[in-house]
Every structure is written in C-alpha cells, then in structure tokens.
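Running this now, will post back.
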Amino acid sequence: MRKKIISSRKFIKPSFSYLVEKKRDGGEFSDEEIRFIVDSILDEEMPKFQQAAFAMAVFFQGMSAQETAVFAEEMMLSGEVIDLTKITRPKIDKYSTGGVGDKTTLVLAPLAAACGVVMPTMNGVDEEYIISNLDKLSSIPGFNPVLDLKGFHSQLKKVGCTFIQQDPEIAPVDSILYQMRTETGTIPSLPLITGSVLSRKLAEGAEGLVIDVKWGNGSFIKDVEQAKQLARSITRVGRSMKRRCVALVTDMNQPLGDTVGTGLEIKEAIQLLKGEGPEDLQELVLKLGMEIVRLAGVAGSTLSAKQTVQRHLKDGSALQKFKDMIAAQGGDISVIDDPEKFPTAKHVRKLPAPKRGYVHTINAGLIAEGVAKLAKKKNGSYDPAVGVSEIKKVGTQVKQGEPLMMIHYNDEAKMEEALEYLKTAYRLAPKRPNPPELIVERVA
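Update: finished.
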C-alpha cells in the first residue's frame, strides 16, 4: 500500500475535536484538513468515536463539491491506484446502487468488451441489495470471484472485462469509513456516497463512469428526489476530477426482469446477452449500454450508439465475451452453452393471487428478503436452484388463484418462512395503475 506524505509546507495539525466541531457548525474543510483526516484514518490515529462523529457531522451538514472531490481523491490515493494506460482501449466502468433482480451489470461488462470498451469491474458491498452479482456468478461451477491486482490487469488486457470482489488494497480508507457508516446510520449521506464511489472506481483505472442510481422500495434510496441529488452529486464531482460521468435515475419499485435468485438470474442474463429476455431489462441494458459506448467515444451519435449495442447483442459477440470472462475466472462455460445444466429445485409452487384485480404495487425489497430466506445456506452462500420466476409486474391483470410468481425451493421449512415475505410484497386493486417510468431522469 502506498502511503502519502503530507505536504512539507506549514500545516498546523488541528485536533480531531476541532474538525468535528467545524463540520458540525457548517464549516468547510480546507484541502489540507481533508488530507489530514484521511491520513489519520489510514494510520489509525483518529479514534473510532471521532470517525463516527465526523461521519455524522457530514451526514447533517454535507460537503461542497470541492470538499467532496478532494475527499474522493485522497481516499483513492490511500491505497493502490491501478495504471491501465498500457491498455489502449477506453476504460469505462459502471456503478449501480443495487436493485432486486438487476442483471444489467452482468450483461454490460461483456457487452462493453465486445464493443471495444474495457470495463474494470470490482463489485463493492454498496452495489448490491441483499443478493450480489458475485453471489449470482458463484452459481456457475468453478467461478472464482477473487483475482490479485496483477491478474485483474492481465484479464482486462486479454478479455476486456472482469467481475471480481473489491481488492483490499483499493481505497482502504473508504472500506474503513463504509463499515463505520453502516454502524452509525450514515450510509445515505450524499457526499460520503459520492466520495466512496469515485474513490474506488477511479482507483480501479476507470477513465469514465456510467451510474445507475435506483430509487424505490427495492433500493436503499427510497426517495426519488434524493436519487436525483445523488446522480447530480456524482456527475458534478466526477467532472471536477476531470472524469467523464453520466447517470440515469431508474425505478426500483418492482423487481427487474422475471426472476430473483442466483442461478435463475444468470439464466436470464444469458437470454439478455442473446438479445432476448424481459422488456424492462432489455430497455435498461440498451440505454446504459448506449451511455457506455458514447462516453467511451466508440459511438458518436445516439443512433450509432444504439446500433452498436444492438449489433453486439444479436451477433453473439457479447455472449462470447461473457464466456471468455467466465472461463478466465475458472468457471464452467458448458452451463452457459446449455443453461438447462443449471441445478433445478425439487419443488416449484405458485404464489396464488388472493383475489381478482390488477397488480397495483410490489415491494421488491420484500421479494429479495423472501428469496434470501429461501436460498441462503448456513455457510452464507446461496442455493443456485432456488428463487422465484414468472413475476407478475405492476399493471398486470390477474384472476383469483392465478400465480403472481412461481417459487422454486428445496426446503419446506424455509418455504413457510419465505412465504410471509412473498405474500406481503403484492397489493392488488380493482383499477389498473399507471405503469411506472423505468428511467426517471438522465444526468450528464
């Protein structure tokens, strides 16, 4: 780990109490003060209770764009910064605030690589909602989610994409603060999220960033205005750090696609890589994919970007890149060639509609909780055969007894516990609701 040295010019180190009080009272930190805070956390000189007070003060008082940019850069420099300059292709990463049934990043990494864009993806804990993309990929036999930094660079050069867990040498101060934020209720702080995202993604070697900020009951951001503010914060601060950024604010008030569960979602991702699959996911993959190729300079116009993305989905090159990535990380690609090789559950049972009507609302978070109860093993991994499929979406008309979803399970005892979550997730009404807009806003 590379350790930074504070500038030799005169800087009188303030006390941590002074810094906490300064932010508590609405003051703005100088660049040197932010550098001192980050260094003190890295060197374990700032006590945990004052780190907690710092996080809470920022939560309530916020940070300016300048403060946030310096904070992000200092956290980035607290560990290793990967140099991808020898890879001549454009390097664009994608960040998502996590959602239920979201397979878009699984599709976009190989799709970007097929389009000539390198996507250096390390999966952070804040990019998941209960079930992570690495949990899903682990349903592929042999898949290894761990690469060292040398292996990470080598695979990017050879394949153009990776899917690994975050290396501990990347932005270590962010990891320390993220744990503190989970313990102090300060996860939703916009400047802390912004600094966290940019410090990690830029340390991974990304030249630009496409952000999918989800809002709703299946995201940790429940308010659409807060989601818009986060999108603006990340893009504004990213630009001030001389990085290209664009964000989409998207709806997460129902699951994306037709399935939730590890193996079931990988099978759906394979469909999407063939240019097929559920309409909502096809739309989101297309829109985010277009942003990636435009940001990378691979496509100039909106029409050219759309044609580029569609071509690589239809001609099989995106699917081939997915297979190349899985093979490079030790996975068995025969299950991708023949998804029927994925394990299947012993039992499949419908969740019947209690009455006639229209699906008025769905609590995506409750569905994710239910699937986790159903699929999680004692060792923390997930049963790849277990989950839900054929999910009825908002606006769908159903008859009494008609399935709202199909439940795939292996354990009757877990099924009873999971049912309470799954039943509660649906609300039916006599009138058809207006379908939610999938993409709420674009911020660039």
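DSSP finds 17 helices and twelve strands in the chain. More later if anyone needs it.
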